[in-house]
Amino acid sequence: MADTITVQDLVKRYGDLSAVDGVSFTVGQGEFFGILGPNGAGKTTCLEIVEGLREPDSGTVTVLGEKPWPRNTRLLPRIGVQLQASSFFERLTAREQLETFAAIYGVGPSRVDEMLELVALTDKAKVQTEKLSGGQAQRLSIACALIHDPEVVFLDEPSAALDPQARRNLWDVLREINARGKTIVLTTHYMDEAEILCDRVAIMDRGKILEMGAPADLVRALDRPVVISVESRDLPEDTATGLPGVDAVVSTGGWTEITTTAPAVVLPALAERGALTGLQVKGSTLEDVFLDLTGREYRA
Ligand SMILES: Nc1ncnc2c1ncn2[C@@H]1O[C@H](COP(=O)(O)OP(=O)(O)OP(=O)(O)O)[C@@H](O)[C@H]1O
User: Residue 63's domain spans which residues?
Assistant: First the structure.
C-alpha cells in the first residue's frame, strides 16, 4: 500500500508544554486511520499540522507527496477537512450550504444531491442549518468536506456530543466514504469508535504515540483471559468450577461468569451441558490496552 501520509518526529510546543512530542506514523492509501486518546493528548494539534493549518516546531510531514506547510494550495483540492466545531454560512439551508461549498471548489451542482444522499440528509435539504440536530449538522459538515471529492479526508472528533443512535448513523456514513476508496484520518476519544471503524489506530497520550496497530492486534497482544457468562439456572457455580479450561468462577445476579484463557475448551463443554442460555463472551478492549500502557483507567 502506498503511503498517503508520512509524519516523522513531529514536535509542537506551547511554552513549556509539549503538545506533540516526537510523533511518527504513516497512513496508507485507502486506509482508515484513527488517532485515539484522552482530552489534551495532542490529537487535534497533530491533525492540524498534517492538514497544513498549524506550523510544527520540528519534524516532517507529507500528504500525497506534498508538504502541507507553508499553506500548500496544490493540496487543497485533494484533501477534505472537517474541523472539531462545524461552522456554516448563516441562515442557509442544508442544500444551499453544499451549493456554496460546491461553488467555492468549482464543482458542478450535481454533487450536491449525491452528498445529501450519502449523509442521509436528502429529506433535510430545505432545512436551515440552525434547525438541524447535532448529528445532522455533523453529517452535513462531513458532506461539505467531501463536496470536491478529495482523496484524503480528515475528521476531528466527528461524533463528539452525539447520542448513540446518531453516532451509529455517522459510522455508517464514514464506512461508506472509506468503501469509496477515500483515505480517512479521524481523531476520537471514543475507544469503541476507533475499534469499530479503524484499520489501524495510534493511541496517543501526553503528546506521544504509545502504541500503534490494528485494534484487534493490539487487544490480542495483551493476551488476557476472556469472561464467559451464562445464566446460573443452567450452570450453577460448583458445576462451572469443575469444567475443563476454567480458571475462575463468580456467580452474581443470576449469572455465572467464567474466566478462562481457553474459551475454545470451555464453550464446547457448556454446549454439551446445554448451558448456553444468555451466553456472553467478553474479551479485552482498547481500554484495557490503554490501561496496560499507562497504568491509568481510560477517561476520555
Ligand atoms: N493554541 C494553543 N495554545 C496553548 N496550548 C494549546 C493550544 N492548543 C492546544 N494546546 C494544549 O496542547 C495540548 C494538546 O491539545 P490538543 O487539542 O491537541 O489535544 P486533543 O488530544 O485534541 O484534545 P481534545 O480531545 O480535548 O481536543 C493540551 O494540553 C492543550 O491545552
Answer: 3-214
DSSP letter (8 states) at residue 60: E
On whether both 229 and 169 belong to a single domain, the answer is no
* Nearest CA residue ID for atom 2, ligand 1: 14
Gap from CA of 158 to ligand 1 centroid (Å): 17
Residue 222, C-beta contacts closer than 8 angstroms, at least 6 positions apart: 284, 288, 289, 292
Angle between helices 164-179 and 134-146 (to 10 degrees): 10
Based on the fold, state whether residues 258 and 128 are members of the same structural domain. Answer: no
Is the residue at 172 inside a domain?
yes
Any atom of ligand 1 within 6 Å of the Cβ of 40: yes
- pLDDT 10s digit of each residue in the chain, 300 long? 579 999 999 999 999 999 999 999 999 999 999 999 988 999 999 999 999 999 999 999 999 999 999 989 999 999 999 887 767 888 899 999 999 999 999 998 889 999 998 888 999 999 999 999 988 998 999 999 999 999 999 999 988 877 888 888 889 989 999 999 999 999 998 988 999 999 999 999 999 999 999 999 999 888 889 999 999 998 889 899 999 999 999 998 899 999 999 999 999 999 998 989 999 999 888 988 888 888 777 776
Please tell me the total count of domains within the chain: 2
Please determine, for the modelled complex, whether the ipTM score is greater than 0.90: yes
Q: How far is the CA of 69 from the centre of ligand 1 (A)?
A: 19
Q: Are 225 and 261 in contact (CB under 8 A)?
A: yes
Ligand 1 atom with the shortest distance to the CA of 46: 18
**Does residue 293 lie within any of the structural domains?**
no
Residue 256 Cα to ligand 1 middle (Å): 44
